[in-house]
Design goal:
7% helix, elongated, mainly beta, 4 helices, 57% strand, 34 strands, 6-stranded antiparallel β-sheet
């Protein structure tokens, strides 16, 4: 039996032991419904709050909203090439087992524009091997890629091609996993770029074979679905444009209304370059977007439209580690404040990146590692010294008035909200009642004021102020409470005095206690 029912049973037992001429009597029960403590982390995530030595708080926020990756800059297209052996005999010719009939060294480019790559390590991808033969006998294809190694072993494959039926052809299609292979792309001379060198050999297999006039064997080979783990060489002067687009920002997700003004803000754009490439970045557009109010504030700063030079990272080739370079650009306070005070839930942006703007100044030693990109962050550090105007926090809690056994006996009731406020903020509290369909059916405590805590000459709260709000609930209105499944708690804050920036300290809090004072008419029959 729960506590509430136990109270009623005891009341009934107590009164049933006495003799009365009346058939009913009245009683009153005070029922606690809610105990809650609101602190600043109800508005701002605790992980974003840091303390100053005097225990006043600041907000430290880093928003990584875009990253250029190896895939952003380079795409290695599928590369297929066909070699065809044509019989040049005028009469059928007989070949003994394991006789070489065709051999060719070839090369082809990876077709990555404006680059001069000398090395690539494959993260994932395949070599496609497609053979078609009209020869009526077993044939063998041997394929080698020069300067392609994995764990010290070169890339070699050997495939047996079935004999073709007379007038038809045989076919072999295979994909070979080349992930983990290191390709040196300087060709057989060591002086080329982007070049894969191969050797194809065609021979008879274990049996002797007759090759007729017009017999052919075609071998199509090439790379499919290549992604790089590492690239080295000259990456080329290229321009990459991103946006206009937007990124979500969750800093103000708990705030549903009102405005704030902050006394100070440090706002900067931070570029972390883990590419071994010099680059120039230009922020073409940066906007603060509040979708709740449909308000957009463009950043009115010199950083917008100004090229920012980014120095290349350095690498340790012995352990494959990268030392990134960091470039931080501070944004003027006069531009940062309205951008932040718009309380955005999205940041709109457009960025342009130019790689190797001065050409091949590294002598072909640019590099990129998979997972090591160029990150663009926006960092904010804001002392929580602010002016709040109708700053609204909303939260939803489950609710169930579990008094079904005594529902018909309730004559009336009242809700009591006891607020112990340690913030130098006035607050208006409203409770919205939701039914099973999450529709608002009524509200409580509409526009009721919770008084701000008093402050000293330094505008620091000195004590806690208690406010008690009582809302009568006639029996007719109690029916709405029985159908209530959730309650939205909505609090609107205003700094007091309203024209003064007030610091927020770590020990500020507001304690809320909600009780129901219910009056019953108990029938003895």
């Amino acid at each position: 039996m729960n506590k509430k029912k136990l109270i009623f049973v005891l009341l009934v037992l107590f009164f049933s032991c006495k003799k009365y001429n009346d058939t009913s009597w009245g009683t009153e029960v005070l029922m606690p419904l809610l105990n809650s403590t609101l602190k600043i982390d109800n508005l701002i995530a605790d992980s974003l709050l840091k303390k100053y030595p005097d225990n006043s708080l600041k907000l430290v926020y880093e928003n990584p909203f875009y990253e250029f990756s190896i895939d952003s800059l380079f795409e290695i297209p599928d590369t297929l090439k066909e070699n065809i052996f044509h019989s040049f005999f005028s009469v059928p010719v007989h070949f003994l087992p394991e006789a070489l009939i065709f051999s060719q060294v070839d090369k082809y480019s990876l077709n990555v524009s404006n680059t001069k790559l000398i090395k690539i390590i494959i993260r994932k991808g395949f070599l496609k091997f497609h053979i078609r033969s009209t020869i009526n006998g077993l044939m063998q294809c041997d394929y080698k890629i020069f300067n392609a190694l994995k764990n010290g072993s070169p890339f070699n494959i050997s495939e047996i091609v079935p004999a073709a039926q007379i007038g038809g052809n045989s076919e072999v299609i295979k994909y070979f996993d080349i992930s983990g292979y290191t390709f040196i792309l300087t060709g057989t001379t060591g002086l080329e770029f982007n070049t894969v060198s191969t050797k194809l050999s065609i021979s008879t297999a274990t049996d002797s074979v007759w090759i007729n006039p017009n017999d052919t064997m075609s071998v199509e080979s090439g790379f499919v679905g290549i992604e790089a783990q590492y690239i080295k060489g000259y990456m080329g002067t290229e321009t990459f444009s991103v946006g206009p687009s937007s990124a979500n920002i969750d800093l103000f997700k708990k705030i549903t209304g009102g405005t704030i003004k902050v006394e100070d803000i440090t706002f900067s754009a931070h570029f972390k370059n883990s590419f071994g490439i010099d680059a120039t970045a230009t922020i073409k557009q940066l906007t603060s977007i509040n979708t709740r109010t449909n308000t957009t504030v463009a950043l009115n700063s010199n950083i917008v439209g100004k090229p920012i030079n980014l120095t290349r990272a350095s690498e340790n080739i012995y352990d494959n580690t990268v030392a990134a370079t960091n470039t931080n650009i501070n944004i003027e306070n006069f531009a940062a404040k309205p951008f932040f005070e718009n309380m955005p839930d999205k940041i709109g942006y457009a960025i342009e990146l130019i790689t190797d703007p001065l050409g091949n100044i590294s002598g072909g030693n640019d590099f990129i590692y998979y997972g090591k990109g160029l990150k663009v962050n926006f960092n904010m550090e804001i002392p929580l010294s602010l002016i709040a105007n109708q700053l609204t926090l909303a939260d939803t809690a489950a609710f169930n008035l579990k008094i079904d056994d005594f529902r018909k006996s309730i004559k009336s009731g009242a809700f009591n909200l006891i607020a112990d406020n340690g913030f130098p903020f006035d607050a208006n509290v409203q409770l919205l009642l939701l039914n099973e369909q999450n529709k608002i059916v009524d509200s409580l405590f509409s526009a009721n004021l919770i008084k701000a805590a008093p402050v000293d000459v330094n505008y620091i709260a000195t004590s806690i102020v208690r406010t008690i709000i009582v809302v009568p609930m006639p029996k007719a209105k109690m029916n709405e409470l029985y159908e209530t499944k959730k309650i939205i708690v909505r609090v609107r804050f205003n700094t007091n005095p309203d024209n003064k920036y007030l610091k927020i300290y770590s020990d500020y809090s507001m304690k809320l206690k909600l009780t129901a004072d219910l009056k019953f008419d108990i029938n003895s029959k």
